[in-house]
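Q: Predict the assembly, please.
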Amino acid sequence: MVQIIDKNRLIVSTSPHFRCEESTRHIIWSVVLALQPASFMSVYFFGPMAVAILTISIFSAVVCEYGYQKLLRKKVTIDDGSAVLTGLLLGLTLPPSVPMYIPVIGSFVAIVVAKQLFGGFGFNIFNPALIGRAFLQVSFPKLMTTWFEPTAWLESAATFFLVDAKTTATPLGVLKEEGLQRLLELSGNYMNLYTNLLFGNRAGSLGETSVVALALGAAFLLYRRYISWRIPISYLVTAGLLAWVFGGKDELFTGNPVIHLMTGGIILCAFFMATDYVTSPLEWRGQILFGVGCGFIAMLIRLKGGYPEGVMFSVLLMNCFTPLIDRSFRPKVFGTAEKRGPAS
Amino acid sequence: MQLTFKGGVHPPDSKELSMDRAIRRAKAPKRVVILMSQHIGAPCKPVVEIGQQVKMGEVIGAPQGFVSAPIHSSVSGKIIAIGSFLSATGRYSPAVVIENDFQDEWVYLNERPDYQSLLIDQLKHMVKEAGIVGMGGAAFPTHVKLSPPKEKPIDTVIINGIECEPYLTADYRLMLQNPREIIEGSKIIMKILDVKKAIIGIENNKPEAIKVMKEAAASESEITVLGLEVKYPQGAEKMLIKSALDRKVPPRGLPMDVGVVVQNVGTSVAIYEAVRYGKPLIERVVTVSGGAINYPANLIVRIGTPIADIIEECGNFKTIVSKVIVGGPMMGFSVCDLDIPVTKGISGIIAMPATGLVHVDDFKNCIRCGRCLDACPMGLMPSMLSVTSERGFYEMAKEYNLFDCFECGSCTFVCPSRRPIVQFIRLAKSLVKP
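A: Predicted assembly structure:
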């Protein structure tokens, strides 16, 4: 007869006794993967500086997480990929020529201040990468708004590290300061302008320029259902509508929504930052409201505010409202308010 | 568009292990341990004494109160002990232990070939005396379900042949092998409830069963067989009623609030046997399966058989076992002891090998991904329930409709952070008042 088993080895736990294969780790690493086309394009356009900034940003984010958790004798969770993702996202939002201490400071603020001090992954109220970037923008306004022409690093040995490369303005900056006409003049015609914006051949932060590369990653995430369409689409639609209605020079309904949606960091933000699980609402109506709010604030800043770009603050400000939105929008409990037969 | 409900998950069903194994009778055990608490409601009181001889089908536990069902001996033999025994739920229950004399001597069974002429009250009495309870798992006394109050008129009976739990094939085999009895049982239920409409609900992944049941019901104009979408927990009463009839049972309500009574196919057969042959509920079909079982099977097992005996009958374990689950893997109980006896509500014994995501020890923080909201068939926020309960804010969990959860486990199944959400919910439920 076969020995039955050692009783002590039977595991007792509550149901369900089955789990699906999906894990947090897998989701996070998939988002990192989805950002690879954009990272690749940043290296193509901005050369060795892009490699250096992204590497340092990721590395310091991981070191900060590891150091903090070791110091406080917590379980080290760098393998879940969230620190890598935060570092990568932060790096992709930085201008291409910042000194190397900038990503280090940014990562520190993102990981330690915005994430770990709030209780770690899952408990942060604000998107860590955006907090890191907001801190940098406020503390180093000059460094954070110095832009270079794309592919300038290929021009000569002197500009290889973008040190002596010619600085320029971002399309959004031109749009704000000098208007659409000037932007057109710079590119020649609409066709050129749109092509440049689509592929990312323009000045801007490392990872935000190439709409195609970002769309590729976003499509992957949507296809795998790691993100839903609700936040990004409501975000972009709201921003587009507002750009169309109020973005014109003198009259209403004369703005150009396409340019507004393809410049700045709105695509990166809408698909990769506003959709951050931890800091966005849970329920679908709440998510749409969140996206609409983001679009509204972003366009308010772009059209009426002091900064040319407002997507970063739009997401951070809406992050504040997430708990409130969650409290207001809850799924309908099965069977509520449904009665059969004549009302009594 | 398939008939379905909102939410739910698709766990791998693994039914192929046992779905082609015809139901056969298991060997009678040397002794049976018959628990006095095999149903929802008051436990029975033993009415036998140590040393007493009993026959098969003899009442050994008397019901206490209306929501209770009598318990009968499943063997003939001698009472050797009356005491407290561990049940699958991990609680102790009073129990009667009977040593089998292998004579299989029945008490007098009142056969009624003329059962179709019996009156409603007679039928109801027979169901009650036979100790029949819901055999899908919940084990709610059937005669109570068949006695809805006057102010809740019933217009439809749903016969539950869904069996959405992975691995389980007991109901499936029953539908293939005993379709006639299921139909006759359904007709008795319809007669008791004075209802003109019955629906037999079966998941679309069991086309054979749908075919067989449709053939069996072909001559019955009042009984329809419906194929429903394959999705867990399609077999939960509220979900089944939504899918089949598009009616929603209100929160904390019962099926009778929307004019429905749901009975499992196994219960239907038991009702038929009780009425036609006077046979009390002393055995049931149990699926024995799982990756660690040598020869998966569907067995007719006597109530009170220790699960170790059943596992031995199925060729024992073929590999190291990490969990033995009584019931289905989504809502069943993992047991710590193989001497636990089979009760009326146990539809499966699943032995899981120590591979795969059977047991997860550590869990991470909730990352608010929202998968549990999409999975919850009740429209709750399981993430918030688990977070509030984890922090000890049990009263706050109530604001998130804690008591509307029926613990189907869909949220926990999909959670990428592997949080034991159902466990947190149970903890909160046990610590606050509804």
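Chain A is about 55% helix and 0% strand. Chain A has two domains: 24-144, 170-328.
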